[in-house]
Amino acid sequence: MTMIVVEEHNKDDLSRIAGCYLYSDTKIWIDNGAAHREDGPAVIFPDGVFRWYIRGREITRDVNTFFYQNKWPLQAGLDTDDKLALFRTKFCPAS
What we know:
Elements: E1 2-5, H1 11-18, E2 27-31, E3 34-35, E4 43-44, E5 50-51, E6 53-54, E7 57-58, H2 60-69, H3 81-91
Antiparallel strand pairs: 1-2, 2-3, 2-4, 4-5, 6-7
């Protein structure tokens, strides 16, 4: 998995991978040509907005619901091993 910072020269290519317009200075995590991250959001915009992706599929709405149901603050993210384990169980089943 690779984290790339969006710049003018790669903005169009990375926007196609994410399926949305990416501004310069956006951070995107890519694995096997798809937006993907199992320990946090795969796209973080410069203004702090983020989107969660698993194997190229955006799951932001599902993650927001998951955090709400577990009474976890979104800002804290997956800040404990227990949270990370539950997240991976729900969203990243073994292939």
